[in-house]
Amino acid sequence: MTTQLTITRIKLPLANAYLVQGERPILVDAGAPGDADRIARALAQKHIRPADLALILLTHGHGDHVGAANELATASGAPLALHCADDAMARSGRNVLGALNGLEARMIAPFVNKPFPPVAASILLDAPLDLRAYGVAGEVIATPGHTAGSVSIFFDNGDAIVGDLLMGGRMGGALWSSQPRLHYFVADFAQLAKSIATVLARRPQRLLVGHGGPLAADAVQAWSKANQLAR
Ligand SMILES: [Zn+2]
Ligand SMILES: [Zn+2]
Fold first, then answer.
1. Which-ligand-closest: CA of 65?
2. How many angstroms separate the alpha carbon of residue 1 from the centre of ligand 2?
3. Of the four, 7, 22, 196, 205, which is 20 to 30 A from 215 by CA?
4. Would you state the CATH architecture of domain 6-226?
5. Radius of gyration (Cα) for the chain, nearest Å?
6. How many Å lie between the centroid of ligand 2 and the Cα of residue 162?
């Protein structure tokens, strides 16, 4: 199947969401609480109504990625997918941050770690998901580490959306956004290293991240080698 695939970054105040347009459009991540209108406007720029969305896929259960999920799910009628290992966090409306990685993380945590409207996903992933059922040539696989239920999406065009597996740049991606960095919060370092290796082994060309980016896969490879995160 060689369908057209277009991925558009929706830059929100805290995080990125992505509009993926295949035969049908899907939305990856749903911003922070209060971002629903911004996302709807970004869709409208591409002549897409919320009701056109075939799926809303959440890369993980943190509030800056699921914050407007309820509003968007209601507006669109689209199913809401999340990995089952982040279900409890999403339902609780409270972030589980794990280890705070460095000084910047400790400075930033009080600002980003706000409660969010509890989210109950209608599709709980516990195995790889082929997105062709939703009109998009791509596959979702589990890449835990940042959170237990983090996922990455691999598209046939060489792009991968990896959520908060890594971050681009400093200050939430405001500076040096194409430089790979560890995210501020890591639930499990060993799992994270394994997941980075898993992602790179699938040989994507670009990694689209939750903050900053995009990251060239070559840059991530070099960075992870230098940091002994992945072979
Ligand atoms: Zn996160
Ligand atoms: Zn995030």
1. 2
2. 32
3. 22
4. 4-Layer Sandwich (3.60)
5. 16
6. 11
Dist CA 218 CA 224 (whole Å): 10
Cα of 217 vs centre of ligand 2, distance in Å, is 20
Whether the pLDDT of residue 148 is over 60: the answer is yes
How far does the centroid of ligand 2 lie from the alpha carbon of residue 93, in Å? Answer: 15
Place of tokens 């990995």: 83
Tokens 């509890």 belong to residue: 118
Please give the DSSP secondary-structure letter assigned to residue 68. T
Distance 66 CA to ligand 2 centre (A): 10
Instruction: Express each pLDDT in 8-60 by its tens digit.
Output: 999 999 999 999 999 999 999 999 999 999 999 999 999 999 999 999 999 99
- 164: CA distance to ligand 1 center in Å? 5
Q: How far is it, in rounded angstroms, from Cα 1 to Cα 18?
A: 22
State residue 3's pLDDT score.
64
Query: What is the rounded (10 degree) CA torsion for 84, 90, 96, 102?
Result: 100
Distance 77 CA to ligand 1 centre (A): 25
Tell me which amino acid residue 31 is.
G
Do the Cβ atoms of 132 and 176 come closer than 8 Å?
no
For 180-217, the pLDDT digits (tens) are 999 989 999 999 999 999 999 999 999 999 999 999 99
Does residue 1 have a pLDDT over 70? no
